[in-house]
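Colleagues,

For the teaching module next term, I've prepared a clean inverse folding example: a structure given as tokens, and then the sequence designed for it. I'd like students to try predicting residues themselves before seeing the answer, so please don't circulate the second half yet.
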């Protein structure tokens, strides 16, 4: 579980520094005793780190790290939010160090969520990168004292874009990534800032509400759930809250790898329930799914088994291996569901092999082993008609990372256009 350190911070510079010193004297338990890779949103790096000393901190490519900011009161403009965050987090001489990359209304209707980056990580973010969440209080917002949360983990649901008033959203797009992934970083270009769900899609589909969903699924850590149905049940809680905030919006899912299994199981769970208004609303509103390298009939788990063997995560991982009874049962229910509900599936599969898991001399695991096909074509396209199948000349991780308006992004845009043509309300605006 992520440990949150709480720093009570009025804006006064002197008081902030005093409180910062007090915080460092008290200390807390970090969320992990292992450092993330160079980019905490990029799980493919083979770099292993065991210290968080200042010299290491300064060696990071710090301007590649994306932070999520939650709790911004509704009604604050981007300029107001930027000014307040600068006062809250930065010294005067560093005020140009912060960039707000997105600002969107949360589904609670009361607050907003932002994504931001720094040229250099502020000293007030004590413990970075081991620590992944910080809380601040601020009384500068017009609504009174507010709690502002910064994090790098992106757990739960994060809304990246909502249409600006007077426009209202006419569709919800929710993206979910796979095992051991990062909700935001999985869809972000490698070595850069571009993230297509945030930076291109709102221009092309300006009346979509666009979200990503994150969950703890690192196999070398305590999982946030023990089974696929448990992962899906937790996802359903967030999905239900989202759909209740804007009832009857068409739903589109963008899924990568295990994220596709989570969505399948979630929708199958709904279909088993008594058909009340809420249940029927969610199922009836699903337009379609863009499934990127989803292991419908199984995932190559051979290199992952040593990570979990003998532990509590082994049974979970084995439920995803080729031929697993769980996947067979899920596919039977899923195929009946998509036929009865006319859900459109577009499937993408990887053409390149991917590095596999390998334990390094320091005992840590990295994707640095011999290359292999993690999800084979027949698994990724199972049950999808040929005209809706697209190969991508990338490995398993990169299959969902696009460069700005590249060929694959343009294909995805066209597929979303096809899906939204099913409803006359969805207004498509191309750049």
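(Answer key — instructors only)
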């Amino acid at each position: 579980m992520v440990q949150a350190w709480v720093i009570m911070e009025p804006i006064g510079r002197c008081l902030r520094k005093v409180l910062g010193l007090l915080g460092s004297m008290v200390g807390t338990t970090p969320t992990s005793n292992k450092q993330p890779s160079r980019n905490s949103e990029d799980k493919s790096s083979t770099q292993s780190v065991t210290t968080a000393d200042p010299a290491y901190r300064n060696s990071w490519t710090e301007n590649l790290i994306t932070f999520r900011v939650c709790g911004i009161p509704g009604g604050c403009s981007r300029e107001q939010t930027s000014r307040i965050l600068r006062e809250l987090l930065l010294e005067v001489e560093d005020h140009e160090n912060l960039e707000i990359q997105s600002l969107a209304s949360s589904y609670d209707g009361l607050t907003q969520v932002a994504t931001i980056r720094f040229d250099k990580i502020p000293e007030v973010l004590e413990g970075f990168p081991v620590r992944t969440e910080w809380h601040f209080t601020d009384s500068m917002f017009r609504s009174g004292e507010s709690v502002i949360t910064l994090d790098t983990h992106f757990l739960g649901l994060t809304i990246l874009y909502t249409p600006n008033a007077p426009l209202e959203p006419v569709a919800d797009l929710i993206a979910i990534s796979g095992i051991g992934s990062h909700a935001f970083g999985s869809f972000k270009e490698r070595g850069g800032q571009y993230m297509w769900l945030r930076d291109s899609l709102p221009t092309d589909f300006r009346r979509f509400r666009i979200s990503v969903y994150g969950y703890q699924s690192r196999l070398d850590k305590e999982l946030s759930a023990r089974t696929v149905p448990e992962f899906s049940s937790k996802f359903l809680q967030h999905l239900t809250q989202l759909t209740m905030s804007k009832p009857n919006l068409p739903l589109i899912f963008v899924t990568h790898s295990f994220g596709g299994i989570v969505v399948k199981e979630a929708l199958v769970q709904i279909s088993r329930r008594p058909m009340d208004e809420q249940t029927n609303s969610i199922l009836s509103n699903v337009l379609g799914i863009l499934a990127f390298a989803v292991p419908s009939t199984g995932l190559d788990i051979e290199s992952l088994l040593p990570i979990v063997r003998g532990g509590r995560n082994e049974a979970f991982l084995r439920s995803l291996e080729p031929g697993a009874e769980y996947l067979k049962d899920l596919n039977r229910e899923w195929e009946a569901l998509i036929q009865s509900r006319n859900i459109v599936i577009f499937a993408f599969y990887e053409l390149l092999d991917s590095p596999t898991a390998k334990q390094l001399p320091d005992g840590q695991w990295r994707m640095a082993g011999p290359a292999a096909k993690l999800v084979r074509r027949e698994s990724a396209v199972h049950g999808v008609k040929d005209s809706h199948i697209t190969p991508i000349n990338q490995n398993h991780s990169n299959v969902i990372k696009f460069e700005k308006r590249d060929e694959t992004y343009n294909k995805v845009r066209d597929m979303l256009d096809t899906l939204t043509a099913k409803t006359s309300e969805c207004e498509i605006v191309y750049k």
